[in-house]
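ARCHIVE CARD
Drawer: 12
Card no.: 0347
Subject: one protein chain, sequence and derived structure
Cross-reference: see card 0346
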Amino acid sequence: MKDLKGSGLTDRLAASADAKAALLAKLKPKPTVTAPQGETRAAAKAAELKAVRQARADDKETQRQVAADKVTAQAAAVAADEEAALAEKRGARKERKQLTKAEAQAKRDARYAARKAR
């Protein structure tokens, strides 16, 4: 009768090899769960650079707008000064005309009075 328990040399060698393989399998590093790949350094740097450029462009546009507003305000001030000077000139001209008119009226009245006196 044969020994069914596997006590032969080849059986023992095979069992030993299986045991060694099982031990090695235990010691093998198990696959780990890796975190999803986050933003790379280059992408982060590019995003930061884009944000800085956008901020600078916004600042530059704001400065342009301020300069344009300043020029517009100066032009409005000059126009207002010119308008005021023109209004003053017109007022002086009207006053002169009125004085001239009054003087002419006074001369006429004087002549009329002189004629009446004769």
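Annotation on reverse: Residues 95 and 101 are 10 Å apart (CA to CA). Helices lie at 9-27, 41-117.
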